[in-house]
Amino acid sequence: xxxxxxxxxxxxxxxxxxxxxxxxxxxxxxxxxxxxxxxxxxxxxxxxxxxxxxxxxxxxxxxxxxxxxxxxxxxxxxxxxxxxxxxxxxxxxxxxxxxxxxxxxxxxxxxxxxxxxxxxxxxxxxxxxxxxxxxxxxxxxxxxxxxxxxxx
Length: 152
Fold this sequence. Notes:
Elements: H1 7-10, H2 15-36, H3 41-51, E1 57-58, H4 59-66, H5 74-86, E2 90-92, E3 97-100, H6 102-122, H7 128-144
Antiparallel strand pairs: 1-3, 2-3
């Protein structure tokens, strides 16, 4: 690929712009691909939390983990959680415990395969070392500006 600027020029480029452009490209691509198979990114997050859990999680536990993802907010996340139940992918008992249905497991597997394809697409020609350095630099920038990420 051809870079936008020389190395000397790139050093002076604004991180806010480039991190925003990367965010927009990745999220737009991911959401479009998930939409093509009939789901949303927040629904994927919910399915992944339920499918990958070592123990059964409650609605509140899943909501607490995901509520700050990409500024979705609690209300939007609750609505998306309701849709996973309506779709028949997850059941919720009277205590709010969420369980994957057989249909949900099959759909999760399909979406997980798509996510693996998207991961490979995004990481083409990007080494693990470069990726690790990028994430560490971004986390340092977040820290240096007093920001918060989901892991805080």
